[in-house]
Amino acid sequence: MASEWNVAAERHSALHYLYRLGDAVLIAVCGIAMGALYFHDGIRSAAPVNGFLTMLCALGALLIFPAFGIYESWRGRSRAVLGLRIAAAWTVVFISGLLGAFLIHQIGAVSRVWSMGWFIGTGVMLALSRVVMFRMLANVRQQGINAKRVLIFGYGPLGREMYDRVQHFRDAGYRVVGVYDEESDVIPYDVTPLRQIEEVSSFVRDHGVREIWLTLPMAACRDLSGVVRQFRNEMIDIRWVPDVSSVELLGHRFSEFMGLPVIDLNSPPVSGITGVVKASFDRVFSLGVLVCLSPLLLLIAAMVKLSSPGPVLFRQQRLGIDGQPFNVFKFRTMRPHQDGGGVTQAVRGDPRVTRVGAFLRRTSLDELPQFINVLRGEMSVVGPRPHAMEHNELYKELIDRYMLRHRVKPGITGWAQINGLRGQTDTIEKMRKRIEFDIYYIQHWSFQLDLRIILRTALHGWTGTTAY
């Protein structure tokens, strides 16, 4: 088995250099092909710096591309991340080539049309070459060829999930040949069960195991160092798959903290660069809505003022992101009254609601001033609806994970609202259902999901039998 491993390592090294050479040739060929399309007699008839730039970038790719990790094994890893790395690597190489042309005082002779066409065309071809390569590898691996042998260490729920994923994603090129678990009686028939820790080392050597996946529960994490130490002399990869799903919070994210790798167990997806994108979209969208709907807003303001004495806007304190209080804006829909220190939700036929207010509440037009909150950065266009402060104090003790909804900005519309969960929450079950939808939205957030919610709100609104 050791000789097989050496042969595999040599083959991988050879393929590594072949991929590097192939990318360099592809860059040069794309530059020459673009020159044949743009220049009358090909790139040889252009200024010499164009050919120099082509060769410089091809050679630069041999040196720079490996630094971006694009030649590492991408079995089971995100192809989208690989695409981004390829785009970044090619951009760095291209800019470096332009810098070289600048340093020899020939940047002015570089054809702008040819260089841009070459830059875009090469990026597309680099991506397509990976698509073709992965498709060929997938066809080979689905036949069981070039599959890495794996031992799963611990066969609880997470171990079973990893086994099922190997069976589902055949094109990733993995084959589970053994499972170590002292107690599990549901080990698949097509793998070898190992019951004693002493059996593992010999099994790894005798069966050509290339990777060990540690899927122990979090309670057994103290045993990890001993397991890793046992295989310190084996030429295999060891992957620890932490059981973060057992912690029912918002999600997890791997990051670095004070120079050490950490797992953030309560990290909402809307953070980092995604948070910047969402916040930028919120402000641009809200500004556009306020400008476009300004005549309607002025008309509603006049109707509210004429319907009953009192201010046009209703302000009430709510909790924003990470529990920071803010004043939410709405068009006033009720006559001025006192709640006696509490919050009394509106009910059907509520005498406090004005005739204009009833229409605004039924059509959700009373929510439009909240775009001001979005513009101020206190709310988002899409997110969990902000509840009254008294409701937060009540339900946080009654509903599990209730306060997790405050890890993101509250929204004007949300996943719960477009699924009919709006209006009066007069039972704990109604509120619990709404919270389930809010947590689902936070855990599965994407920009596409936000656009979907906005579109459904624009087409169907929140009108319905529960809106009063």
Description:
This protein has 15 helices and eleven strands. With 468 residues, the protein is of the alpha/beta class. It has three domains: 2-141, no CATH class; 148-246, 3-Layer(aba) Sandwich (Rossmann fold); 272-460, no CATH class. A five-stranded parallel β-sheet has the order 3-2-1-4-5, with helices on both faces. Strands 6-7 form a two-stranded antiparallel ribbon. Strands 8-9 form a two-stranded antiparallel sheet. Helix 1 (2-38) packs antiparallel against helix 4 (112-141). It is flat.
How would you sum up this structure in a few lines?
With 468 residues, this protein is of the alpha/beta class. It is built from 15 helices and eleven strands.
Question: Descriptors for this entry?
Answer:
single chain, 12% strand, flat, Rossmann fold, two-stranded antiparallel sheet, 3 domains, 49% helix, 15 helices, alpha/beta, five-stranded parallel beta sheet
What level of helicity do the residues show? 40-55%
Radius of gyration: 30 Å
The low-confidence runs, each spanning 5 or more residues with pLDDT under 50, are 1-10
Biggest sheet statistics: 5 strands, parallel
Which structural class matches the secondary elements?
Answer: alpha/beta
**What is the residue-averaged pLDDT?**
81
Percentage of residues in DSSP E strands: 5-15%
Number of E strands: 11
Please tell me the total number of domains. 3
List the helices and strands in order.
Answer: HHHHEHEEHEHEEEHHEEHHEHEHHH
Strand order of the largest sheet: 3-2-1-4-5
Shape: flat
> First CA to last CA: what distance?
73 Å
The helix tally amounts to 15
